[in-house]
Design brief:
The chain is of the alpha+beta class. The strands form three sheets. The chain has a ten-stranded antiparallel sheet, with helices on both faces. Strands 1-2-15 form a three-stranded mixed sheet. Strand 10 and strand 11 form a beta hairpin. Helix 1 crosses helix 4. The model has no long low-confidence stretch (mean pLDDT 92). Bound molecules: zinc ion (ZN) (2 copies). One zinc ion binds next to helix 3. One zinc ion binds next to loops.
């Protein structure tokens, strides 16, 4: 019998429909064709990208030349433009403003063929330090209210360049998904006086059915009402609204557990395409007690069809308890 499940945060209903029970092997999909050819993110092609905004390089190596460990540049085809004022206007019932925002690319490492899951621990950690450094810097720009960090892995997940990279977009408005989460957790806080995410974490740790990995500071779990098979979330165990407030110690534990989770996903499903996004609190949020930052990872194993698009319901053929158990058992 399919089950309707409600996400306690945003109130979104999903349909867990395991009638045609799908095992992980049912999801293995055709590999993206290796495209090859010219890569603007490889050593020697630094001049082909906009100038670097941030780079981690050994002492003595020069900006915009080879030798870097990690590089952040503006997106050459930005979704939003960084220059200019917002110029908010109205026209009757319609509201608009200029498309001001920053769109940056984090080139995770110089090696074209090493995916995030397979980087050395140090290099993996560099990527997350870069996310943090960029958020802290963009926070100074008062036009921005939010910085969304995300990654598209694989062609089917929207990665148009093969070379491993992530992206961030700084926005003058809050993303809808974040507003929904904020509203849900604010409402919960207003009558329970507790953070909803903290309550979810402690219940999930007790239950253990949906936990994939756990360490001193973090938990990786499949959510109760996931939209997609093998969707998982990473959350800090200690309440914290802002990703960029991570301590050095926490950063170490974050990267160990998240890389292991990526590795498990890669082994379980033969390196599937996926997206992940960091959901952190809006920049300068006045009430950080109500929100709890986390990373949401959604593999791209199923395609969204008319019913999903038209209704906002997701049909998920794999129960999160099954996904979690499978990921737990993968040796990584
Ligand atoms: Zn490359
Ligand atoms: Zn919390």
């Amino acid at each position: 019998m399919p089950e309707l499940r409600k996400d306690p945060i945003v109130g979104r209903w999903v349909i867990i429909s395991t009638e045609r029970a799908q095992r992980p092997s049912d999801f293995k999909i055709q590999k993206d064709e290796k495209k090859g050819g010219f890569c603007p993110f490889c050593y020697g092609n630094e001049a082909k990208t906009p100038p670097e905004i941030l780079a981690y390089r050994p002492r003595g190596s020069k900006p915009n030349e080879s030798g870097w460990d990690l590089r952040v540049v503006s997106n050459k085809f930005p979704a939003l433009m960084v220059e200019g004022e917002l110029n908010k206007k109205g026209d009757g019932v319609y509201d608009m403003m200029n498309g001001v925002g920053a769109h940056e690319v984090i080139v995770e490492n110089p090696d074209h063929n090493i995916s995030l899951a397979n980087l050395s621990e140090d290099k993996f950690q560099n990527v997350f330090w870069a996310f943090r450094d960029r958020i802290i810097d963009l926070k100074k720009d008062k036009r921005f209210r939010y910085v969304l960090v995300f990654k598209n892995h694989g062609l089917r997940a929207g990665a148009s360049l093969e070379h491993p990279h992530s992206q961030l977009i700084a926005l003058p408005i809050l993303p809808k998904t974040v507003i929904e989460e904020l509203n849900g957790s604010k409402e919960y806080f207003s009558y329970k006086d507790r953070c909803l995410y903290c309550d979810i974490i402690s219940q999930e740790i007790d239950d253990h059915k949906r936990v994939v990995l756990e360490n001193e500071d973090f938990i990786v779990m499949c959510p109760f009402a996931p939209r997609f098979p093998f969707e998982f979330w990473l959350l800090p165990k200690k309440h914290s609204a802002h990703f960029e407030d991570l301590t050095k110690h926490e950063m170490g534990n974050l990267t160990i557990i998240f890389q292991r989770a990526l590795k498990k996903l890669e082994l379980a499903l033969d390196d599937p395409p996926y997206n992940f996004m960091i959901h952190t609190a809006p920049l300068n949020m006045p009430n950080p007690e109500i929100y709890h930052w986390h990373i949401e990872l959604t593999p791209r194993l199923t395609r969204m069809a008319g019913f999903e698009r038209g209704s906002g319901f997701y049909i998920n053929p794999t129960a999160p308890e099954v996904s979690a158990q499978f990921l737990r058992e993968v040796d990584a």
